[in-house]
Amino acid sequence: MLMQLNKENLTINCGLTKLAPIFCVTLLLLFSAQVSAQEASDIWVGKLNLWEKEPITELIQVTNTQQYSNQPYFFDNERLFFTEAVNVDGSDAQMDIWVFDFQSGKLQNITQSASSEYSATPIPDKDDMSVIRVNAAGSQELWQVNLLGKAVQHLAPKLSPVGYQVWLSDTDSLLFVLGQPITLQRVNAFDPDTKGSIVDTNIGASLHRFEKTDWFLYTRDDDGNFLHAYNKETNKTIQIVRMPENSVFFSVSRMGNVITSDGETLWQRKFMIKGDKIRPLNGWQKITIEQPECAEGVTRTAISPDTSMIALVCPRDPKEAEQS
Hints:
Number of domains: 1
Distance between the termini: 31 Å
Shape: globular
Number of strands: 27
Radius of gyration: 19 Å
Order of helices and strands: EEHEEEEEEEEEEEEEEEEEEEEEEEEEH
Largest sheet: 5 strands, antiparallel
Structural class: mainly beta
Strand content: over 45%
CATH superfamily: Tricorn protease N-terminal domain
């Protein structure tokens, strides 16, 4: 069965491209403007200690809706930003950036704009964030937005549609750019005339810095889902290890632990730099959550800067969503 998407001038046909099915599904989800009951999810936050037999404990529920809540990002150890669907009416959904403050325990809708915003990411050395914003034509663009939700400027305007981003410095970023093939592109986001340079192709959606180094992690389809790294100083890319089967998104701790999910099970593995390579120190290890929460699995994670907390995106029971 072929999965096909037509959007503007972009056509994605999973049966005719070299994209692995998992990456093609990710691409389709990025363009989906429909938030259905099957996509309903909530965000939970728990204590994280990877040296304990039970690494994740004391889960608390951050969101409690029948809609899409996803893309968590710890801006610091006190605030968790994420994307949530609001104003859902039939097949139409408005996506806004929200923040949960751990000290006050309060949720706040930051953007509340006429357009949809995704993937909030802090911009280095600024009090602003970058987001993926959907324009009037339906294309996804990179924007600078302040923490009050006001749009500041369109970043990297030569590149579109953009799915995800990670900052290499206070000016340069790596972007997940949709197309055939999907590309990883480096760009000076604040230079409106820069077109960007292609670093790699057929990549996955997660982009993370490895510890406080010049290496940035991503995944790539190499006849299977493999973890790769890009060095911002040498422009070198390396293949590291094969990811667990069916894993899409991953997160990275400051100690070099990579946590990923195959949709049902969480896995973790520790890595460190040896010479000009990033090497695994062990195999993929299963993380078991003893609490009854997240019984439907975990689709995405985020780790706090001090590694004391982890955010989990947990799908809702489809039966609960159907009853709402």
